[in-house]
Amino acid sequence: METQGEKTHTCGTICLKYLLFLFNILFWVAGGAVLAVGVWTLVEKSDYISLLNSSFYSASAYILIAAGAIVIVTGIIGCCATLKEMKSLLIMYLVLLLCIFLLEIIAGVLAYITYQELDDELRQNLKVTMQQKYQQPGEESVTQAVDKLQQEFKCCGSNNFSDWTNSTWIQAADYKRLVPDSCCKTPSELCGDRDHPSNIYKVEGGCIMKLEEFILSQLYILGAVGTGIAFFQLVGMMFTCCLYQNLKEDPY
Q1: Which of 135, 100, 136, 125 shows the shortest CA–CA distance to 230?
Q2: What distances in angstroms separate CA 120 from CA 76, 117, 125, 170, 212, one per listed residue?
Q3: Which residue, of 47, 127, 188, 241, is most buried by count of CB atoms within 10 Å of its CB?
Q4: What membrane topology is given (predicted)?
């Protein structure tokens, strides 16, 4: 009977080891995905940072990169702890999982609060930034960001194309210019001089609305990914606790 009990115990421990090892592989992949999203956000969407007074956008990208790196390291520690059956490493792994889980909850709350502030800031500052800094000396990053924004989101002006009428750049022009060339559906040199509805983003809406939708969609994606990872973490913590109880006392 004792031999059978030992076999059952050993079989349960082996199953837990493989389940925890599989969890760590999935956790490691999730960390890599979060890291990749952070790098993509920083590289592909960094132009929009110059349109915002706050560092929310760049900070969120760096947080994603850091979170992804921490998750990857945690996954590696979990694999080592599982394969070597070391209780000390399992405790460290469990603590790291718990810390990441708590940080995710805090980050989620802060992201929601910060988004509300960012939304107000976006509405207040985007129009002023576009009208006063576009094509001005020393504001090349803003000009590039505005052009990319209007082309990528198929919009013209902060609220609509008429916002460009009061811009410093257009008012200082020697000839009549209506909108930037990036407002054109088919961009070409000086196409913004012709205010023709068929080639200007007039009815598609302003860039504020499009940028708000983009940021909100990114938050939804991050929220969904965070929820999924958090669920995996709870499962991982459960497996870790069970394996810890089943292992013999670590001689080290």
Answers
A1: 100
A2: 41, 5, 9, 27, 10
A3: 127
A4: Multi-pass membrane protein
